Amino acid sequence: MSAALLEVRGLSMSFGGLRAVENIALDVAADEVFAVIGPNGAGKTTVFNCISGFYKPGSGRVRLDGKDVSGLPSHKMARKGLVRTFQSPRLFKKLTVLENLLVAQHQHLQTALLPGFFTMPSYRRAEKAALDAAHQWLDFMELGAYADRPSSQLPYGHQRKLEIARCMAAGPRVLLLDEPAAGLNPSEKRELQQLILQLRAQFGIAILFIEHDMSMVMGISDRILVMDRGQAIACGAPDEVRANPRVIKAYLGDE
Questions:
Q1: How far apart are CA 120 and CA 136, in angstroms?
Q2: Element (H or E) spanning 168, and its range?
Q3: 151 SS3 class
Q4: Taking the mean position of all CA atoms in its chain, how far away is CA 192?
Q5: Of 36, 26, 35, nearest to 4 (Cα)?
Q6: 106 vs 110: CA distance, rounded Å
């Protein structure tokens, strides 16, 4: 693995008098699959929301490729290459599958309204490039047959794939997946595991994900951070985490 692309230090977040996350630290390399796990209510999604700009953390630092991006809003995080999915797919339900992928690329289009209005060559080139990229991702995800169908009509597993495709169309350096296997059947989970590994191998991106399916976590993760009650209780390779007494206690409780 290469040097850390994403660095988080001292991340803490409170809601009123409730300390939801306390002093979380993690590093994710550019070619790493890194999982965050823990019982329900452990603070995993709060960490994701702070890293991705949906929450402004109470304290701590987030650095992307050595640059401090702490507290930036989510749309600015996305422009810098940090994009995410959610526990439930958040697609533009009234747009087609193809249009969802075009929307994802809008921040990269360097064309102004006036050239577009007069259909100047620069606008037409950018439009064609966006269409080409959208079709490439549809083919990559095996969704080409659904290009003109409203995204709301896709089967749930395909909606998950479209959401990941939309993230990839935005050109991420770090992809955050929030419970990507939730609601998938066993066959779809196996496909998802292969997809995550393929994205890492083919595009060299960092993948940080939250997941409750331990078979998937142990099968594809390079390292795992375990949280309980807002704090990190273990971090390491799958075999280390699996044998850690604090992890066993957090999941199974005391005798």
A1: 25
A2: helix 156-169
A3: helix
A4: 13
A5: 26
A6: 9
SS3 194: helix
Three-state SS for 90? coil
Both tokens assigned to 237 = 């390779």
What predicted TM-score, i.e. pTM, was given to this entire model? 0.89
pLDDT tens across the length of the chain (255 residues): 567 999 999 999 999 888 999 999 999 999 999 999 999 999 999 999 999 999 999 999 999 999 999 999 999 999 999 999 988 888 988 999 999 999 887 755 544 444 555 566 666 777 788 899 999 999 999 999 999 999 999 999 999 999 999 999 989 999 999 999 999 999 999 999 999 999 999 999 999 999 999 999 999 999 999 999 999 999 999 999 999 999 998 876 654
Beta bridge partners of 208: 34, 176
Residue type at position 157: G
CA distances from 133 to 73, 79, 81, 98, 111 (A): 26, 17, 17, 10, 17
Residue written as tokens 């009123």? 16
Across the beta sheet with 206-210, what order do the strands follow?
A: 82-84, 174-178, 206-210, 33-37, 223-228, 231-236
Domains in the chain (CATH in brackets) are 4-81+172-252 (3.40.50.300)
